[in-house]
Automatic annotation (TrEMBL):
<keyword id="KW-0443">Lipid metabolism</keyword>
<feature type="domain" description="Acyl-ACP thioesterase-like C-terminal">
    <location>
        <begin position="166"/>
        <end position="226"/>
    </location>
</feature>
<keyword id="KW-0276">Fatty acid metabolism</keyword>
<dbReference type="Pfam" id="PF20791">
    <property type="entry name" value="Acyl-ACP_TE_C"/>
</dbReference>
<keyword id="KW-0378">Hydrolase</keyword>
<keyword id="KW-0275">Fatty acid biosynthesis</keyword>
<keyword id="KW-0444">Lipid biosynthesis</keyword>
<dbReference type="GO" id="GO:0016297">
    <property type="term" value="F:fatty acyl-[ACP] hydrolase activity"/>
</dbReference>
<dbReference type="GO" id="GO:0000036">
    <property type="term" value="F:acyl carrier activity"/>
</dbReference>
<dbReference type="Pfam" id="PF01643">
    <property type="entry name" value="Acyl-ACP_TE"/>
</dbReference>
<comment type="similarity">
    <text>Belongs to the acyl-ACP thioesterase family.</text>
</comment>
<dbReference type="InterPro" id="IPR029069">
    <property type="entry name" value="HotDog_dom_sf"/>
</dbReference>
<keyword id="KW-0809">Transit peptide</keyword>
<dbReference type="InterPro" id="IPR045023">
    <property type="entry name" value="FATA/B"/>
</dbReference>
<dbReference type="InterPro" id="IPR049427">
    <property type="entry name" value="Acyl-ACP_TE_C"/>
</dbReference>
<dbReference type="InterPro" id="IPR002864">
    <property type="entry name" value="Acyl-ACP_thioesterase_NHD"/>
</dbReference>
<protein>
    <submittedName>
        <fullName>Thioesterase</fullName>
    </submittedName>
</protein>
Length: 250
């Protein structure tokens, strides 16, 4: 971060572990990179994971994200990710991202919303609870427009069931946001992904998923002709919706 700026930049190299069978960056790996740089940026501002845990007894939680992919990065490529925060509302902290290739061209845009959750009571806290300060008031957005509510198109069908295990959870003890993306991608066969690369994805994370929870994934492909897909996850324990996602494909 430059002195007096809220903009944070990170350099990343796309490794073999980050790509799928087409040698393109997996969407879940992209989400992990976003999480990584968001954490570093928050730490740089003085509100990193450990500070929030020790001083405020809260944790950063991603609640909504939209990603627009202009081009998928490929194996062995070097990319730069830029991220910056917007002024918080009463509940949400907005953070945007731009991914650039080695020439400086923007290849991915993303906008996200975060909250802080109490580590003991698992309840969402108001933004003022951590007294966050940004050195500048940035107003530009990576993606224009507001997050919207969305639902299936009327053709919902079960895809598969998944039990949350050890490898799915993160340091907060719940299902990591990048794993949700893997679950969404697994609703479709590899040949489908080869023929229909993801253009945009928007996810609403509605409720925590914890170890032992059984999640049924449902998909709606009834608007395939319009290049739109819908996927949601339902917790079979309480039948609450864990997440909803809207996807556009090429």
């Amino acid at each position: 971060m430059a002195n007096g700026s809220s903009l944070y930049k990170g350099q990343y190299h796309i490794e073999l572990r980050d790509v799928d069978f087409t040698k393109k960056l997996k969407l879940s790996a992209l989400f992990s990179l976003f999480q990584d740089i968001a954490s570093l940026a928050a730490e740089d501002l003085g509100y990193g994971i450990e500070t929030l845990e020790k001083k405020y007894k809260v944790a950063w939680i991603l609640t909504r994200i939209r990603v627009d992919i202009l081009r998928h990065p490929t194996w062995d490529e070097n990319i730069t990710i830029e991220t910056w925060p917007l002024q918080p509302s009463k509940i949400d902290f907005d953070r945007d991202f731009l991914v650039k290739d080695h020439t400086g061209a923007v290849i991915i845009k993303a906008a996200s919303k975060w909250v802080v959750m109490g580590l003991n009571d698992r309840k969402i806290k108001r933004t003022e609870s951590i007294n966050i300060y940004y050195p500048e008031n940035r107003t530009e957005r990576a993606i224009e427009g507001k997050f919207g509510k969305f639902k299936d198109f009327g053709g919902l069908e079960p895809a598969y069931q998944k039990v949350i295990g050890y490898s799915d959870i993160d340091f907060n003890g719940h299902l990591n946001n990048s794993k949700y993306v893997d679950y969404i991608m697994d609703c479709f066969l590899p040949d489908f992904h080869k023929r229909h690369p993801i253009h945009t994805i928007e996810i609403n994370f509605n409720q925590e998923a914890l170890p032992g929870d059984s999640i049924t994934l449902y998909k709606d492909i009834s608007k395939m002709d319009e290049h739109e897909l819908y996927v949601e996850g339902i917790n079979q324990t309480d039948h609450h919706t864990i997440f909803k996602s809207r996807i556009t494909i090429h």
